[in-house]
Design a protein that fits this description.
4-stranded antiparallel β-sheet; alpha+beta; globular; single chain; Transferase(Phosphotransferase), domain 1; two-stranded antiparallel sheet; 3 domains; about 325 residues
């Protein structure tokens, strides 16, 4: 089972969002990690662009905070490690998340954590901003509120002054190791902040972590969502369905009606510019199938193995010092590895 996101082409054009959608697709097609919401398929029809991704039924951490779930230090410690692995992976691909918060951290039914990938950062941002956000998120999970009282409407000068005069208060009930880790993540100077997996792994509090087990989701999480209930607010989902002007469940009839109407003299064609934009979206949309890609990569690997064995036998007959570049040879025959 998967989750599916669909975006109306005409609305995207009117809101000038097509480039962002294409960029998101392009980025997600190149990523795959245990702690990311991975893209599996992308496709289109006349009306919409579709993205099919991992289905996470455990809800997001914001929902569980609002349900007054108490996250233990052990649970938060594991979250930090899992998200650190994901951040390190994104940095390898030169991606800045910029929006790490409980709302964007989703749980599956067994509770390994993943977060949704967004576009890389704008001017003035670099990777340390994500590690700051990780610290803020961990603090909020432990305490129930953020280290600074900042909202979207808070003026920038007020925020800057807050950072100058206010100190973060750490609970006396937290262990010293957790407090030291949070302080290093919430260091205001990005040059001095923990901002890589290596930095995180060097913290004494995490010295006992089995990082291979974290990556393989082999550690028991401190919090597991209730499988017998819906881990989200159904009101919001119902409102979306009610307000949707072109609901998905009526698409088949709607498209058939449109095609029938387009074949009559009474049809009202879209204005020329919009029609041209829709045609451009149709042509430039990137269709993606991760399963098919994996099969192709598997076939490419088999080609590489077979040719390497043959090349190895041939190489043994060559004189010492000759350079037989087997990788280049096999790649010219379509090796996709």
């Amino acid at each position: 089972m998967y989750a599916m996101k669909y975006m109306n082409k005409q609305k995207c054009i009117e809101r000038d969002e097509v480039r962002n959608v294409f960029r998101e697709l392009q980025i997600m097609q190149g990523l795959e990690h245990p702690f990311l919401v991975n893209l599996w398929y992308s496709f289109q029809d006349e009306e919409d662009m579709f993205m099919v991704v991992d289905l996470l039924l455990g809800g997001d951490l914001r929902y569980h905070l609002q349900q007054n779930v108490h996250f233990t230090e052990g649970a938060v410690k594991l979250y930090i490690c899992e998200l650190a692995l994901a951040l390190e992976y994104l940095q390898r691909y030169h991606i800045i998340h910029r929006d790490i918060k409980p709302d964007n951290i989703l749980l599956d039914e067994h509770a390994p954590e993943v977060f949704q990938v967004y576009l890389d950062g704008g001017p003035g941002y670099s990777y340390p901003v994500d590690w700051w956000s990780l610290g803020v998120t961990a603090y909020e999970l432990l305490r129930g509120w953020r280290p600074y009282e900042i909202h979207s409407a808070t003026p920038i000068d007020e925020i800057l002054n807050m950072f100058k005069v206010e100190r973060v208060h750490y609970s006396s009930t937290w262990c010293k190791g957790m407090v030291v880790l949070l302080k290093k993540l919430l260091t205001k100077d990005p040059e001095c902040r923990l901002s890589s997996l290596r930095d995180i792994q060097s913290v004494p509090y995490l010295a006992d972590m089995n990082w291979d087990a974290v990556f393989e989701k082999a550690l028991m999480p401190g919090f597991v969502p209730n499988k017998g209930r819906l881990n989200c607010d159904p009101t919001f989902e119902l409102e979306e369905m009610i307000l949707e002007s072109k609901p998905l469940h009526k698409k088949k009839k709607r498209l058939a009606k449109n095609r029938s109407r387009d074949g009559t003299k009474d049809s009202c064609p879209l204005n020329g510019h919009l029609q041209q934009c829709l045609e451009t979206v149709r042509k430039e949309f990137i269709i993606f199938n991760r399963e098919k890609l994996r099969r192709q990569q598997g076939q490419g690997s088999q080609l590489l193995d077979t040719d390497s064995q043959a090349g190895g036998q041939a190489q043994s007959k060559l004189q010492d010092g000759c350079n037989n570049n087997l990788l280049t040879h096999t790649c010219t025959r379509g090796c996709s590895s």
